Amino acid sequence: MRTKIVAGNWKMNKTFEEGIQLVKEIQQSLQVNPINANENIKVIISPPFVFLKPINDLLANSSFIYTAAQNCYSEEKGAFTGEVSAQMIQSVGAKYVIIGHSERRAYFNETDALLAKKINLALANNLFPIYCCGERLEERNANTYFDVVKKQINDGLFHLSAEAFSKVVIAYEPVWAIGTGLNATPQQAQEMHQFIRNVVKEKYGKQIADNTTILYGGSCNAKNAKELFANPDVDGGLIGGASLIANDFVQIIHSF
Ligand code: PEP
Q: Which pLDDT tens digit goes with each residue over 7-18?
């Protein structure tokens, strides 16, 4: 059974106190109303870098909640003032790192070639990458969205060996759906997730494709998560806005 994941990307939100409070509320709620132990579900919280260590410490006793960084730098170490390396992230106990979020691609000019370097560094430092891909509105309207996503996956990930690739989580996040309140329909999500799984199958074979966790992201919330997650190739979600409210995030976790 492949792993199902609900990951909350806080982006640049919350003060330290607010963040700790949010995590405590999520933990308490999941204690009162636990997740189905028969499902292979992981919850990931991705706060800003500076909260990673204390939040990770708070989650030390949890068997299924992990932390992720929202980014890492593309070099191993050295004179890169203000940057944070994969090794640093690993050293504070985070297990995952989001790589190639569309906001990083758009505002920080991150290319697939740069992202491939980050993927390598994440894996070299025992972090599981959550690799984001997804088309922009004009690419959806021009019907080039399959080509766009295939290229992002090919250029960012397909240099990896099968063993290394099997540690990667893919997040399909159509840019037009992120933070807009306009989610992909369950049919649109399933169509793209199935396509991605086939692209992975062509490269690495059926077994690895069947085991690859593919998340949907883009205005996924407590109301639409159930319908989105019901699709056979949608293995959970990467959640932005709705991950900032404990009740909403927990409801999404209960949507499998
Ligand atoms: C995201 O930033 O990855 C995201 C999916 O945001 P939102 O849920 O707010 O659309």
A: 999 999 999 999
Choose, from 103, 110, 173, 193, the residue flagged as catalytic: 173
**pLDDT per residue as tens digits for the range 86-138:** 999 999 999 999 999 999 999 999 999 999 999 999 999 999 999 999 999 99
- List ligand 1's pocket residues with C-beta within 6 A: 9, 173, 178-179, 217-220, 238-242
Closest-lying ligand 1 atom to the alpha carbon of residue 177:
10
Rounded to an integer, what distance in angstroms lies between the CA atom of residue 151 and that of residue 196? 11
Ligand 1, atom nearest to 178 Cα: 10
Longest Cα–Cα distance in the chain: 48
Cβ-based neighbours of 251, under 8 Å, separated by 6 or more: 222, 225
Catalytic residue among 101, 103, 139, 193: 101
Residue nearest atom 3 in ligand 1 by C-alpha distance: 240
Question: CB-based contacts of 188: which residues, under 8 Å, 6+ apart?
Answer: 174
- Dihedral, 116, 207, 70, 29 alpha carbons, nearest 10: 180
pLDDT, one tens digit per residue, over 235-245 is: 999 999 999 99
- Of 1.10.10.10, 2.60.120.260, 3.60.10.10, 3.20.20.70, the CATH number of 4-253 is 3.20.20.70
Q: How far is the CA of 9 from the centre of ligand 1 (A)?
A: 7
Task: For the chain, give every domain's residue range.
Answer: 4-253
Q: How many helices (H) and strands (E) does the chain have?
A: 12, 8
